[in-house]
């Protein structure tokens, strides 16, 4: 298997058409606590991916048995700590925005598709927890949300609104994107994805924005 990335929480490998995410032991944690955290986070991430599988907005998970035999004894494929997913080919949302930053109509259309998927995610009462342009892939015209390692189940409107706030802040930092000028199309797309609570979540987002601006002013002052 080829190592693709080593993050704070897990190491990600590619094996042919599959991605394997392994939560490796952390020596700075007490062993029993570390084991419990890795097990619970792996179990939760699998459950979140299964929960939205029917929406086709995330990688599909597979049993470890689909992988060929691995000779590297240092790689532990214990399913309590590892997830096997389909490998998705495509570019990140960040790459797409930077490459097409001068094409306003394309950006509006693209972000509308992305916000619809985020709405679908929130409609399943899932909060991503690390929603950034690097965790959104564009695969043959389809939007895929990846890396739900910090995700959780939540029916709190506030949690979904914070998810949106974090995402829009990272979007606006790219190539001078101004979301306010696209808000009507984006909001309609989000509501289309999150039919039951979309409007309420967007209302809460306005409150979250105000709090964010107030914190920024206080920090400057």
Automatic annotation (TrEMBL):
Q: Where does the Protein kinase domain start and stop, copy by copy? A: 1-221
**Reaction catalyzed:** L-threonyl-[protein] + ATP = O-phospho-L-threonyl-[protein] + ADP + H(+); L-seryl-[protein] + ATP = O-phospho-L-seryl-[protein] + ADP + H(+)
Please provide the Gene Ontology terms (biological process) for this protein.
tRNA processing
> Which PROSITE patterns does the entry mention?
PROTEIN_KINASE_DOM, PROTEIN_KINASE_TYR
**GO MF term (any one):** ATP binding
Answer yes or no on keyword Acyltransferase.
no
Enzyme Commission no? 2.7.11.1
Q: Which domain of life is it from?
A: Eukaryota
> Sorted alphabetically, which Gene3D superfamilies does this protein's record hold?
Phosphorylase Kinase, domain 1, Transferase(Phosphotransferase) domain 1
Class of this enzyme: transferase
For this protein, the record's Pfam families field holds: Pkinase
List, alphabetically, the GO terms of the cellular component aspect.
cytosol
| Keywords linked to the UniProt accession | ATP-binding, Kinase, Nucleotide-binding, Serine/threonine-protein kinase, Transferase, tRNA processing
Which residues span the membrane?
Answer: none
State the family it belongs to.
Answer: Belongs to the protein kinase superfamily. BUD32 family.
Indicate what this protein is called per its UniProt record.
non-specific serine/threonine protein kinase
Which organism is this protein's natural source? Nematocida parisii (strain ERTm3)
């Amino acid at each position: 298997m080829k190592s693709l990335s080593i993050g704070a929480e897990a190491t990600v490998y590619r094996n042919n058409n599959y991605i394997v995410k392994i939560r490796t032991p952390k020596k700075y944690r007490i062993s029993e606590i570390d084991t419990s955290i890795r097990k619970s986070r792996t179990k939760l991430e699998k459950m979140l991916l299964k929960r939205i599988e029917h929406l086709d907005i995330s990688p599909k998970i597979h049993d470890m048995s689909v992988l060929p035999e691995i000779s590297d004894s240092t790689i532990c494929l214990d399913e309590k700590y590892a997830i096997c997913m389909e490998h998705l080919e495509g570019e990140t949302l960040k790459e797409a925005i930077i490459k097409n930053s001068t094409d306003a109509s394309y950006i509006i259309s693209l972000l509308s598709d992305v916000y619809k998927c985020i709405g679908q995610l929130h409609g399943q009462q899932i909060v991503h927890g690390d929603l950034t342009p690097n965790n959104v892939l564009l695969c043959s015209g389809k939007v895929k949300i990846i890396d739900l390692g910090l995700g959780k189940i939540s029916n709190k409107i506030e949690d979904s609104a914070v998810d949106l706030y974090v995402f829009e802040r990272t979007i606006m930092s790219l190539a001078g994107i101004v979301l306010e000028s696209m808000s009507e199309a984006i909001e309609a797309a989000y509501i289309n994805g999150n039919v039951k609570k979309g409007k309420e979540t967007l209302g809460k987002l306005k409150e979250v924005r105000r709090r964010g601006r107030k914190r920024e002013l206080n920090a400057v002052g």
